[in-house]
Amino acid sequence: MQNPQQKRQHSLHDQPDLFQNLFEQAPVGMAVTDAAGQIVKVNESFCQLTGYTEAELLSMNYADLTHPEDLRQEAIYVEEIRAGRRRGYRMEKRYIRKSGEILWVDLSSFVAETPDKQIYGIASIVDITERKRAQEQAQLQLHQARLLNRIAQGIRQSLQVESILGFAVEEVRRLLDVERVVIYRFFPNWVGEIAMQSVSRPELSLLGLVIEDQCFVSQWHQAYQQGRISAIEDIDTAPIQPCHRELLAGLGVRANLVVPILQAAGPDGKDSEPARLWGLLIAHQCSAPKQWDPWMPDFLRQIADQLGLALQQAELFEQLQAANAELRYQVEVRNAELAQRVRYEQLLRLIGDKVRSSLDEQEILATVVRELTQAFQLGACGVALIHPETQTYTLAYEAAGSLPPLGKVTLPLDPVLLRQLRQGQTLYLSTDHPLRGRCTLLACPLVVEEQEGQLVSGTGSLLGFLKLVRLPQEGFTEAEIHFAEQVATQCSIAIRQARLYQETQAQLQQLQQLNELKEEFLSMVSHELRTPLTSMKMALKMLEVRGLSEAQIPYFNILKQEWQKELDLVNDLLDLQRLEAGSRSLEIARFEVREWLEKLLPPFALRFQERQLTFISYLPSEPILFNTDVGLLTRILSELLANAAKYTPAGQQVHLEVAVDSSGLHLQVTNTGVEIPAEHLPRIFEKFHRIPHLDYAHQGGTGLGLPLVKKAVELLQGILQVESGENRTLFAVSLPDLGSSALTPSPSPSGRGELDDPGQRCRSNSRHG
């Protein structure tokens, strides 16, 4: 008895038509091959997929349908089945349809054995062509993207145009599967050259070929500049100009794809001007026509855009390098100029220092020509002094460089050049020198000045010229000419100062001689006048002793006053002469300041009272000892008080302040109601200088009082100051203690020695209306 499973199997065995129907009506392609690979049975789906009829397929081997590149892998699987290592296999493979198209299938194959031991292969195929095309398209796009990325990365990482272009053409040739890819670069006249290439065979090389395409120049360069893309699949059938076809045929081209390589007009790639056509990126198929896939033109255009960017950056880099090189050159030139300027400034400073430190004309000019010769590497340099009356010049100072020295020679001067020098022009010329022959000459005029900032006009303004000489093939730069003119100005100043100094020295010598004669005369006169004045004194004394009548007394008094004036004049002259000659020795004595003042001031107080002046004194409040020459100190204060009495108007005040501190003795005499005119103030210490209109007492004077004060203060190592303004005049004298010990006050009631406090002064007023 059979179970249900056995019944179903027996039933299927009894229905062979069922399996036949399933085989023929299957939605997938089905095929049966014998052990040799011969096709023995196919279904309708298999015929539709391959494009062959059943009869055609039954006469074919499976290898006839298989793509050659897939035969090897499938043969491996078959051998493994025959060896018993597998019962079947599955693979993706390509069939070649009857139309020649590629059919991608998913193949499943296994082996079946019949009862009579016959082996058959049973295969089923599913069409996966669309999926494979999609995969190939995705891979192609990925490859394109990677290629574009590599080119873009190469542009960012390298500015070597040659390597970028070489890499691009090689990758494009492989991707497009063509025999040649070239980059054609235009010259300005639209003639071009094959600048880079990639070829599948060496005999296809066009590298370096210069091509002149008249058709392109006349018809196509503007179109390509606007982005035109040309694709020719077969030059024999394409609608192109005969000249173009002839050119392509001569280059061995059957099909080509051309895209322009454009560069942005602006340096940053954003300029509004149209792009510049740099060249062409061209793919060639040489052995046969070629159908260009739709993606190829756009892809090639993207590659060309990247190359245009690379070329733009490379040109910008070259421009930057050129700009940097120019900048470095300018910096080097500038540094050289600065170094030269520093050398010139150092030399000019040296000359200026020499001018300021020396008044020796010969020393200064000799230094100038020597330093200029070394600094400028001159043939010779000299200072020439002009003789206008003879129109000649003498080379007064000279330094020789590469040319031999001439010495102090006198040579003629061209009248035209003389006139130009007089006009202050610098001469720069090539000339025939009477002694040196042909040479290059630079002559800068030397002019003297009348006063600061003004040039003397006329014939006498031109003193000479600074002469710089070089060999005939050598010249002078603008900087050298400018510097030589500055040096000439310094030389002019030096000559003027040296000559002014010489004149001043001569005048000083004359003044010194005159002063010595005057001093000798005054000394002689003073001594000669003392004898008659002594006789006059004795005569006056005798007249006074014998007695005078009432009428004679006024005349006697006048005679006595005039005698006293003459005596004072002679004594002042002799005292001043001794002070100036240094024959007056100091007689240092220790004295008490307040006691000295109490003896000195009463006569002056009486004189102030007679002249209706208010005398106010500020004296030390305690006894103080001081060391100095009492005679000179008395003369100083007496002259200042007498001067105040003479020049103070009635009703005004005279102030005397006396103080002693650690720095010395300080005297200050101030009179109000009078000012010394500003033009007289610098001269009040000159001998015999007087201001008559300020002598309100009409007492007259010798004009020797203040000069005596000045000399006495200097001899006592003191300081004399005068101020006049705001309706008052002040004389201040400060004298150091000339004793061997410090200031010592007189013993105080407590027995302690104390220094005087300058603030402790009593005020003694004598007011007289």
Outline the structure in words.
With 769 residues, the chain is α+β, with helices and mostly antiparallel strands. The protein is 46% helix and 24% strand. Helix 7 (129-157) runs parallel beside helix 11 (295-357) and helix 14 packs antiparallel against helix 15 (552-581). Residues 451-460 and 741-769 have low confidence and may be disordered.
List the topology elements.
Blueprint: H1 4-13, H2 16-25, E1 29-34, E2 39-42, H3 44-50, H4 54-58, H5 62-65, H6 68-82, E3 88-96, E4 102-113, E5 119-127, H7 129-157, H8 161-176, E6 180-186, E7 192-199, E8 210-211, H9 214-225, E9 230-232, H10 242-250, E10 255-263, E11 276-285, H11 295-357, H12 361-376, E12 380-387, E13 392-400, E14 410-412, H13 415-422, E15 427-433, E16 437-447, E17 449-451, E18 454-455, E19 462-470, H14 478-546, H15 552-581, E20 588-592, H16 593-610, E21 614-620, E22 625-629, H17 630-647, E23 653-661, E24 664-672, H18 705-715, E25 719-724, E26 728-735, E27 761-766
Parallel strand pairs: 21-23
Antiparallel strand pairs: 1-2, 1-5, 3-4, 4-5, 6-7, 6-11, 7-8, 9-10, 10-11, 12-13, 12-19, 13-14, 15-16, 16-19, 17-18, 20-22, 21-27, 23-24, 24-26, 25-26
Summarize the structure.
The chain is built from 18 helices and 27 strands.
Structural class: alpha+beta
Strand order of the largest sheet: 8-7-6-11-10-9
What would you report as the Rg, rounded to the nearest angstrom?
A: 63 Å
Count of individual helical segments: 18
Mean pLDDT: 80
